[in-house]
Amino acid sequence: MKSVTAKEMYNIDRKAMEDYHLSGVLLMENAGRAITEKVLKHLSKDSIVVVLVGAGNNGGDGFVIARTLANLGFQVNLIQIAFDQQIKGDAAEHKAIYLKFGYQMTQINQTDIYQDIIQSADVIIDAMLGIGFQGELKEPYRSIVKLINSLNKTVIAVDLPSGVPAETVDGPTLAVQADITYCIEAPKPSAFIERYANFYGEWETVEIGLPKSLLEACKTDVWTLDKVKQTLPKRDKHSHKGSHGRGLVIGGHKEMPGAVRLTATAALRSGVGLLTVGSTSDVLPIVASAVTEATYMDLTDPKLDFESRIQPFDAIAIGMGMGRSDLSRQWLDAVIESDKPIIIDADGLYFLKSHLAKLAERKAPTILTPHPGEMAMLIDQTIQYVKNNPFEVAKDFAKNYQVYLVLKGAYTIVTCPNGEQTINTTGNPGLAKGGSGDCLAGIILAQIMQKGSLKSSLANACYIHGLAADLAIEDHHSTTDLLATDLINFLPDAFRKCLN
Ligand SMILES: NC(=O)C1=CN([C@@H]2O[C@H](COP(=O)(O)OP(=O)(O)OC[C@H]3O[C@@H](n4cnc5c(N)ncnc54)[C@H](OP(=O)(O)O)[C@@H]3O)[C@@H](O)[C@H]2O)[C@@H](O)CC1
Ligand SMILES: Nc1ncnc2c1ncn2[C@@H]1O[C@H](COP(=O)(O)OP(=O)(O)O)[C@@H](O)[C@H]1O
Ligand SMILES: [K+]
């Protein structure tokens, strides 16, 4: 599945018409009928349906939905939130067909009546505004949105909840609070941006017959189980531990010994061939008593030749619970100077700001795993700015510094140095607890050393991390009690689901 911007969608629409001779009227018919099929699940034979139709093509979809439902015998009231002269093009064609069928409509300027009609609804279909919405919501939409949100009705949005833009816009948001949104062909980026996502309610895509090749050319993947199954490497019958990577985890200090323990255990549970934990002499015994399968490196040993000791490793994850001492800064410097693929997390990111210019020169891949707070620190912006513009922030950063960026959140976004992005949809608020990110670093470390592209390895790691948490909740955990350790205990189930 893809996530598609408004600009990409308009381009696809244009090409579908020009190159494939699919007319706009046909696509609108397909959209309206595909959504109607979904809407039927929410209706009983006596349901009163109110379809709110805006001035653009989103409204055009509304005319098709209203006609199709009325034609099936449902009681449908259509309210046109625009003057007649505003309804143009394909939407006007479908309005004419609707009227030709003999079905009634009310116009918004018949003031009080429309409020009564909306109040009489069992189900409200919001076909007011879609990807053409820009800026701040204007009247009369504002009043209608407030009215809808004050009522306790089932609200179904067409493509987007009206008032939610396809991508972030400045200014406050007043939008329809939908129960479910049927996204035409693909969810738009706002479905994954914190300030807009809740307005969608649940969301599903509907297929309207656009050529798949046009959609596939879009750059942002919503990472699904299908994609994981296609790309997650299976172990070869004749493989040996050396085939699955030799990983080094660097982190931990006396106040945070648990972080590296989590990273190490998650890496081992995620397929790493050989694992070494590098930490301070006081942390190592604590970790060693819990992680039997790893080997250890005392990074505080004065005789240690750090540069030569990191040579045998295939990849290094650094930063988890590492603290901010001069020593840890030196470890980070050496790791950045190395020719190894590296994952920089947590305290490693803290030191990174002064090294950013060096990253583009590295020969091996650099993977950064910031949460929005760390991202904001790296780019001197507010956390809110990062949360409101995650796709743009991540893309600019990854391209500028030629890094793979894993911007963590409820929808973690993986961005490649060429700007390609994947969105993760697994995971739940049970992960909003210290330690979850440490586990992710371990899963990533293990996965990037297996076969497969770095993009799919990172996307799969995020998917499996979230899936383990989801499976734990489906089993006997709740989002309140879930611990990072529990997540690791559900990695076996997550891998089995993805590998079978
Ligand atoms: N391939 C596809 O994707 C297909 C897409 N289809 C559908 O088309 C939809 C896109 O249609 P679209 O381009 O006509 O835009 P749409 O969302 O109806 O909005 C335009 C109207 O909104 C108004 N308006 C704007 N901002 C506003 C504000 N702040 N406050 C108030 N009003 C505001 C604007 O007014 P104006 O600015 O012109 O005064 C204009 O009247 C898409 O979401 C999908 O549902 C299918 O039919 C078929 C195939
Ligand atoms: N509400 C949520 N829904 C889904 N995933 C979440 C949620 N909150 C946090 N996560 C995930 O949990 C992890 C938290 O990482 P981070 O903030 O670095 O925590 P820590 O380093 O303290 O373990 C990230 O992978 C993030 O995507
Ligand atoms: K809508």
Automatic annotation (TrEMBL):
**Mind listing the UniProt keywords for this protein, alphabetically?**
ATP-binding, Isomerase, Lyase, Metal-binding, Multifunctional enzyme, NAD, NADP, Nucleotide-binding, Potassium
Q: Name one Pfam family in it.
A: YjeF_N
EC number annotated for this UniProt entry = 4.2.1.136, 5.1.99.6
Entry keyword Transcription regulation: no
Mention one GO biological process in which this protein takes part, according to its record: nicotinamide nucleotide metabolic process
Catalyses which reaction(s): (6S)-NADHX + ADP = AMP + phosphate + NADH + H(+); (6S)-NADPHX + ADP = AMP + phosphate + NADPH + H(+); (6R)-NADHX = (6S)-NADHX; (6R)-NADPHX = (6S)-NADPHX
Residue ranges occupied by any YjeF C-terminal domain in the UniProt entry? 224-498
Residues binding K(+) are N58, D126, S162
Q: Which PROSITE patterns match?
A: YJEF_C_3 (PS51383), YJEF_N (PS51385)
Which GO molecular function entries does the Swiss-Prot or TrEMBL record give? ADP-dependent NAD(P)H-hydrate dehydratase activity; ATP binding; metal ion binding; NAD(P)HX epimerase activity
Please verify whether the record's keywords include Endoplasmic reticulum. no
Name its co-factor(s).
K(+); Mg(2+)
Q: Where does AMP bind?
A: K408, G409, A410, Y411, T412, G437
Which residues are listed for (6S)-NADPHX binding in this entry?
Answer: 57-61, 130-136, 141, 159, 259, 321, 371, 438
This entry's comment on the bound cofactor is: Binds 1 potassium ion per subunit.
Q: Name the protein family.
A: In the C-terminal section; belongs to the NnrD/CARKD family. Belongs to the NnrD/CARKD family.
Q: How does it assemble?
A: Homotetramer.
Supply the name of the protein. Bifunctional NAD(P)H-hydrate repair enzyme
From what organism does this protein derive? Answer: Amphibacillus xylanus (strain ATCC 51415 / DSM 6626 / JCM 7361 / LMG 17667 / NBRC 15112 / Ep01)
Name of the encoding gene: nnrD
